[in-house]
């Protein structure tokens, strides 16, 4: 039997790496410090715990790069996508899950696989030999982060990631709020009413912005800087960028009609998305925050419909560590200076649950093939997985490297595609059709190679 692949971290990337190894017939060992060593963001010792949002974002695999990534991961046997499907919640066109049930199911499946074992221990230094995948995510422990900096010979990069608050559904005033997905999106009534909407008129919006700007914020330690990732900005930071920023961002009123006053167009709308299967918890969409807890409760209760809101969890903020992957990793995700080490997930500079899981899945496949004495063909750059891989292993400018969600801007251009907004739908469909064909062919080739 081939030697085991060792994986540091039991988050999205780590479990996908282990699952990919096991599916290839290669044993995998996950080294996870929780629950023995906790973090301020995690609540359990489960694998693949979701700490920020309960959404994997758009599931549209024809017009959205994230939805395409879902499709590619499903085709490759992703454990994340399998369990997300089993524990899916209504969320319009998004893929949202009951976060506790999802993580519990992933944990049971991974721990129950005969080729996967989980060791509950903190790794404080990078190993000197073997085959390892570092998938420690945004909350890499201090000791291991120090070891990574020593191994890479470069200062690590950091930004601050913020967590949105969660509200008890029975404390939302449905005499003010109403249920509707934007543009009534969804195939079922449950999908079309997946969000709770809280309307604001102009005076209320202006007062809310004033309160956001005046609220007491979390202070950073000396020497820390707030290099935020634009896809996860704290709500008050968005407000600081301009009083209308929120109204054209998470509080945009488009595609929504107030069921209580159909003829009155809201000036702004705060949306809440279902967070568990029971429908008892809702998270405030796009409202990551670094306000102190006392200020959060006061400010968020200014939102119409949330006057008496009870919070199951208030927002928070944490430091997120990632390496400068374009300078450090080869096209097989190996650390050039120490090729027995692969990096995967958010620590490589991809942003989001899905992107992190996809990179873990790919790292597992690459490591398993190498363990069996094989080399997989290059991942097509026109696929969602390949576009992310290309970005972090040389496609991005190392001098300005920042965390990145998957998006069509990372894909090779389509020949003769129409440019501009009018050609967007046709262009996006072209991207996804090409990616699906390339990904299917790549998977077929890797399966055939594994069988030889």
UniProtKB/TrEMBL annotation:
<keyword id="KW-0520">NAD</keyword>
<keyword id="KW-0808">Transferase</keyword>
<keyword id="KW-0963">Cytoplasm</keyword>
<dbReference type="InterPro" id="IPR036188">
    <property type="entry name" value="FAD/NAD-bd_sf"/>
</dbReference>
<dbReference type="InterPro" id="IPR004417">
    <property type="entry name" value="TrmFO"/>
</dbReference>
<keyword id="KW-0285">Flavoprotein</keyword>
<dbReference type="InterPro" id="IPR040131">
    <property type="entry name" value="MnmG_N"/>
</dbReference>
<keyword id="KW-0274">FAD</keyword>
<keyword id="KW-0521">NADP</keyword>
<feature type="binding site">
    <location>
        <begin position="9"/>
        <end position="14"/>
    </location>
    <ligand>
        <name>FAD</name>
    </ligand>
</feature>
<keyword id="KW-0819">tRNA processing</keyword>
<keyword id="KW-0489">Methyltransferase</keyword>
<feature type="domain" description="MnmG N-terminal">
    <location>
        <begin position="5"/>
        <end position="373"/>
    </location>
</feature>
<comment type="function">
    <text>Catalyzes the folate-dependent formation of 5-methyl-uridine at position 54 (M-5-U54) in all tRNAs.</text>
</comment>
<comment type="similarity">
    <text>Belongs to the MnmG family. TrmFO subfamily.</text>
</comment>
<dbReference type="Pfam" id="PF01134">
    <property type="entry name" value="GIDA"/>
</dbReference>
<protein>
    <recommendedName>
        <fullName>Methylenetetrahydrofolate--tRNA-(uracil-5-)-methyltransferase TrmFO</fullName>
        <ecNumber>2.1.1.74</ecNumber>
    </recommendedName>
</protein>
<dbReference type="InterPro" id="IPR002218">
    <property type="entry name" value="MnmG-rel"/>
</dbReference>
């Amino acid at each position: 039997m081939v030697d085991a692949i060792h994986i540091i971290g039991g988050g999205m990337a780590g479990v996908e790496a282990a699952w990919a190894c096991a599916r290839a017939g290669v044993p995998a060992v996950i080294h996870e410090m929780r629950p023995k060593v906790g973090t301020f963001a995690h609540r359990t010792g489960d694998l693949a715990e979701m700490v920020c949002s309960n959404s994997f974002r758009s599931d549209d695999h024809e017009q959205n790069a994230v939805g395409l990534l879902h499709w590619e991961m499903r085709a490759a046997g992703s454990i994340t996508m399998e369990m997300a499907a089993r524990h899916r919640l209504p969320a319009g066109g998004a893929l949202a899950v009951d976060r506790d049930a999802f993580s519990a199911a992933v944990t049971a499946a991974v721990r129950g696989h005969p080729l996967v074992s989980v060791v509950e221990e903190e790794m404080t230094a990078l190993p000197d030999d073997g085959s390892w995948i570092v998938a420690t995510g945004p909350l890499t422990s201090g000791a291991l982060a120090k070891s990574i900096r020593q191994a890479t010979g470069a200062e690590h990069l950091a930004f601050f990631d913020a967590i949105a608050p969660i509200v008890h559904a029975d404390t939302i005033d449905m005499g003010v709020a109403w249920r509707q997905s934007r543009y009534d999106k969804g195939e079922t009534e449950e999908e079309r009413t997946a969000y709770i909407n809280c309307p604001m008129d102009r005076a209320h919006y202006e007062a809310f912005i004033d309160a956001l700007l005046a609220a007491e914020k979390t202070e950073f330690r000396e020497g820390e800087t707030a290099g935020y990732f634009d896809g996860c900005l704290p709500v008050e930071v968005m407000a600081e960028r301009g009083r209308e920023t929120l109204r054209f961002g998470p509080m945009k009123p488009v595609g929504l009609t107030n069921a209580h006053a159909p003829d009155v167009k809201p000036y702004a709308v705060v949306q809440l998305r279902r967070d568990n299967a029971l429908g008892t918890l809702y998270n405030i969409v796009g409202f990551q925050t670094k306000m102190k807890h006392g200020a959060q409760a006061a400010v968020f209760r200014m939102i119409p419909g949330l006057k008496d809101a009870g919070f199951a969890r208030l927002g928070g903020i944490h430091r997120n560590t990632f390496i400068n992957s374009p300078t450090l990793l080869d096209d097989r995700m190996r650390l050039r200076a120490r090729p027995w080490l692969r990096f995967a997930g958010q620590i490589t500079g991809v942003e989001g649950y899905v992107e992190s899981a996809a990179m873990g899945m790919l790292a597992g496949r690459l490591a398993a093939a190498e363990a069996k004495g094989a080399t997989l063909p290059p991942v097509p750059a026109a696929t969602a997985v390949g576009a992310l891989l290309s970005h972090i292993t040389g496609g991005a400018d190392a001098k300005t490297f920042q965390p990145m969600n998957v998006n069509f801007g990372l894909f090779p251009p389509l020949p003769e595609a129409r440019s501009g907004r009018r050609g967007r739908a046709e262009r996006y469909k072209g991207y996804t059709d090409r990616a699906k064909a390339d990904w299917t062919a790549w998977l077929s080739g890797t399966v055939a190679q594994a069988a030889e």
